[in-house]
Amino acid sequence: MPDHAHRSPRTPAWLAWFIGRLGYGLLTAWVISLVVFIATQALPSDPARVILGPDAPLQSILTLQQQLGLDQPILVQYLRWMGAALRGDLGISLDSQVPVAQLLFGRLGHTLALLAGVLALVVPLALTLGVSLALRRDRPLDRWGLSALILLKATPSFLLAVGLVLLFSMPGMGWLPAVSILDPQLPLWRQLPSLVLPVVALSLSALPYLTRMVRASMIEALESDYVVAARLRGIPERLIVWRHTLPNALTPAIQGVALTLRTLVGGALLAEVIFSYPGIGTALNAAIQMRDLPMIQGVVLVITLAVVLINLLADLLTVLLTPKLRTARRVKMIRRNRRGIRPWWRRARSTPAQEATHD
Amino acid sequence: MTDARWLADPQVRRGAVITSWVVLVAVLGPWLAPHAPTAMVGPVYGPPTAGAPLGHDFLGHDLLSRLLSGGVSVLWMSVAAATLALLVGGSLGLLAGFSRRRLDQAISWAADVSLAFPDLILVLLIVSMLGRAPWLIVLTVAIAFTPGVIRLARGSAVAVAGQEFVEAAQMMGYSRWRILFNEILPNILTPLLVHFGNMLTWAVGMLSGLSFLGYGVAPPAADWGLMINENQAGLLVQPLAVLAPALLIAVFAYGTNILAEGIGRVSARIGEKQP
Amino acid sequence: MTAAVKIASDVLQVSDLRVELAGQVDVLADVSFSLAAGEIVGLVGESGSGKTTLATALLRHARQGARITGGHIAVAGQAVLELEGEALRLARGGLVGYVAQDPATALNPALRIGALLRETVLAHLPKLPGDAVQQRIQETLVDVGLPDDAAFLRRFPHQLSGGQQQRVMLALAFVLRPRLIVLDEPTTALDVSTQAHVLDTLKRLCRGHGVAALYVTHDLAVVRDLVDRVMVMYAGRLVEVTGRERLFSAPAHPYTRALLAAIPDIARRQPLQAIAGHAPAPGQRPAGCAFAPRCARRRAECAVIEPSLSALDAGHQVACLVPHREVLPRGDVAVESVTAPGEGVLLEVQGLDVAYDRQVLFDVSLQVAPGECLALVGESGSGKTSLARAIAGLGENVQGQLRYGGEPLAFSARQRDARLRHQIQYVFQNPYRALNPCQTIAQTLSAPLAHFFGVRGDEAHRRVEAVLARVSLPARVAGLYPQSLSGGERQRVAIARALICEPRLLVCDEITSALDVSVQASILALLRGLQGEGLAVLFVTHDLGVVRAIADRVLVLRRGRVVEEGSVEQVLGWPVDDYTRTLVAHSPRLHLGG
Fold it and tell me: Which CATH number fits domain C350-423+512-523+543-587: 3.30.465.10, 3.60.60.20, 3.30.70.330, 3.40.50.300?
């Protein structure tokens, strides 16, 4: 083990890693925009016809196509769309004739509020549950808790949502709105009860994965040599859980939260549709049904960019919260294999110096 | 030899029993159904009677007949989607793990990019674009699952390939194919199998969700997901029409899930014996 | 309370300690002993003997699934097993300190060294003012030979070397000034010279602070210079307890004698004797003496009566019905080389360079004669494994020249001629990963037969049985999967896989380092026999005792360069290079001055 590893250079090594990671994220985002554009352009529908209606004369459709630039090569169309998107202009919704960005902005706020509510509920709950199950490993509470979580995990999330809607549309259950149709005149924070059921439905479907992840990494940390050593040094149990175990168990949980968020973005669509919640998911669903091309492009772009951003943040947090990665001279999150020896089919040709590991 | 050890675990047995029970209902159902699934034989939302033990649905179909006929579509589509994803993703993952750095990076990166599209949104986009033919739905669900399989297969293959017994095979000068099929593939089958079980669970959820949203199997065909959507309005009059298909979907998902979990746990336990 | 009369100076009194697994299967039973203040006692046993269970039981800790079910432990007058809650917590660390086996995993990767030390002090002395805590930490760091500056305290464990990490573990134990300290194989993960320094420090601390220490190890040679007394453990029982001199000169229990005969000694070449059979697993103890089935001196009553630990004479206890009473004969029979190495050169390496991120081998040259055993010796990071892998055709980024039988040899095994490829075989360090878990032993062994010689069917079957017999495994092993074999058996299969290729050169990479000494002895004996049949062996190791036991010539590597080369007698007896000298001087030895 090199002894000079602790010497801290002026710029931390993770910064270089992060810049590379950022570039990778941007590249991914760009490719995604390309894919989204081309895929949606391939939709068998003609925006001009959507706008003018089925009975419009051919001549006016052709004129409109020209105005919209639809007669130009797809690459030119893409560059134009891309340039506008970079300025924040995502086009005009074919359905409502309102700028997509404006429509999306309001909807995005609603979906973000929904996701924030889910995170605020799920993360503390999963941590508490995961930690307490791990501390009672193999006792009845743990076994029952696990079985319940498996049941919850297996139930398709839309069934949970449908179940909740049905439950609260029964007579006598009117104390929570079963559907979440918001009044656009009122700010969201005055209509919070409408958020409760969608949040609960999404939380229930996200809870099992995160809880089991926290439980597993807690157990791994609790069984580690350093926790046994700390116990045998007389460190109080409270400190063992909070200082020795939890921080080490949290690092995998960060990636877990990121993955949960990624699945939630998709799951939110179903939940929003079921609860008629005016978020980005219902917008996408409506746009798909109306073949509202600019809207579809806008929504998908925003969602995928959000996912790229989430991944980026999760990786950054993981590096910053793991001392070994933070202080490494060279950060590389992917390990080759246990002994750092490259498999044979990767050898030769390439220069060896690029593949440094820190472990 | 491994099968026997898996079945020794009570959880695996329970999962196998539950899964095969639902599979039996779905596969044999169409022959057992007293009526055609599209025949309107009773009153709208009619309650259970002697002739129709579960009552009737929103158009007066016999609920039991629709239930018995509505499982095949979910079942074959989810199995087909998961199998397709396993085969394609497994091959691509192995290819990535075994090619030189360029191709590996390209495949892994493509998998990363497609993981940025949430599953359901990807499926919705494709289905809305190209139509709702069953094979198309299967294909799109498989496409949505493939990146995950690629990552898993690549990761496990590289981990196994770093072990000494693979190096020993390489030193003997065995051909690459032989190393791939004899040394590596058998050792990554278990994680892939567990993932397959999980994919089944997700596929069931996603397919019935699609049907529920109206992008799946087209009415008037019987389908469990579709039935939930159709009969929502009559919940208070005829709750069975919603609850029964929901229950069957949940039970099937539960069965495949604990089967996968059990297999994963047993093999982890076997693996523990080797430090 | 115990019947034993308490001697004022006894820090630790253990009586009738018993630890069980589920189902009343005992892993540890009838263990009684005591330790005086300032005394260092070695606890020696092979894997599965229950020595670690005993060590942690002294802190009233049992691993998952095990329970302390009986007995009495008193440390400085406190009954440890009766402690609960807060009192138990204070006793752990405060009364009894613990140093774990592998410091790399026993230090929390997320906490700085200073935080660990401060937390440990404050957990026991919450009222100590800040500057007193700081002073105490710095004193302790100086005591264990570590820097005490603020920069060091701010480091994370992964920023320390292995030796420094283990010193931090010592500091964490000594900072609380416990009365007893339990060390569980604390130097296994360290290089010999680091190990020697850590052991020196430990001895000085125990003597200086009057702390009693229980030092758990599998290697008698390691404790040769450290301990005052030794306790030998077998199958969950103490079988012999005696002073150090007595143990090495006149061991009374047949197991102790067998263990001593199995340990390779750097000082002289002695015929290593493996112990036949296996130690019984918990729950499978035979009636009577647990060692009887493997014992050459057993009598009829040994299978009936379980001997208890009783005094042979003053200060010497043994659990045996027919203990040895005579002094161990000084085995002055210097074993001659099995064969005179053949004429000529089988393998020649010239100017070999290997570089990964940085260069690990610099201009290494060596020669191996047919039928010769050349040992490659070096500490971790010396490049010895890279050299072995390069020769076997597994290396990457190799430059230089390889010649085999006078002909140039390609660096990659794949590019070598198949007729040459089977002549150079490699055995890996870790037997647990060397065999494909999805193939039976027969499949693993017959694959190379078909590949190299086109031999299949009955002939292949016959050859597999023959090679299994050659490595002393029963023919029924052929039908088994690796997971039903022990580590030693797996390593034999790995050797058999090499042998079935009819090699002329066998490259062995630390092949015994994961095995118990008695198993190691049998593997070394096997290699010795094969070498007698004309096989050349390139043996990579860090253990100079093993070198003495097996090699004809030795090559010492340091940081990728050859620093010394010569016959074993010459290099180990009269080392010339400074580095070789320290290596030889720090290597644990069984016989002083021998």
Answer: 3.40.50.300
Amino acid in position A94: L
> How does pLDDT run across A111-150, given as a tens digit for each residue?
888 888 999 999 999 999 999 998 888 888 888 888 888 8
Chain A residue numbers with beta carbons less than 8 Å from the beta carbon of B156 are none
Asked if A292 and A94 touch (Cβ cutoff 8 Å), the reply is yes
- Which residues of A have a CB under 8 Å from any CB of C? 1, 3, 5-6, 223-237, 239, 243-244, 247-248, 322-324, 327, 341-342, 344, 347-348, 352-353, 355-356
CB contacts < 8 A, B to C, total: 64
SS3 content of chain C, % helix, strand, coil (to 5): 35, 25, 40
List all residues 6 or more positions away from C235 whose beta carbon is below 8 Å from its beta carbon: C49, C50, C279, C280, C285, C290, C291
Domain segments of chain B as ranges: 1-70+221-275, 71-218
The sign of the dihedral angle between the CA atoms of C178, C180, C185, C188 is positive
Mean pLDDT of A282-300: 82
Secondary structure of residue A17 in the 3-state scheme = helix
Q: Which residue of A has its CA nearest to B160?
A: A337
Domain ranges of chain C: 10-109+179-227, 350-423+512-523+543-587, 433-503
Token pair for A299: 């929504």
- The answer to whether residues C409 and C421 touch, using CB atoms and an 8 Å cutoff, is no
Q: CA separation (Å) from C305 to B106, C15, C241, C287?
A: 70, 21, 20, 7
CATH for the C10-109+179-227 domain, from 3.40.980.10, 3.60.40.10, 3.40.50.1100, 3.40.50.300: 3.40.50.300
The CATH fold assigned to B71-218 is MetI-like fold (1.10.3720)
**Rounded-to-integer distance, Cα B37 and Cα B66, Å:** 5
What is the chain B residue with the closest CA to A158? B209
Strand partners for C566: C554
E-assigned strand segments in C165-271: 180-184, 212-217, 229-234, 237-243
By the 8 A CB rule, do A182 and A191 touch?
yes
Residues C515 and C491 sit within 8 Å (Cβ to Cβ): yes
Extract the tokens encoding A37.
């554009």
Do the Cβ atoms of C436 and B183 come within 8 Å?
Answer: yes
**Do residues C214 and C179 lie in contact, with contact meaning Cβ atoms separated by under 8 Å?**
no
pLDDT tens digits, A235-267: 998 899 888 898 888 888 888 888 888 888 777
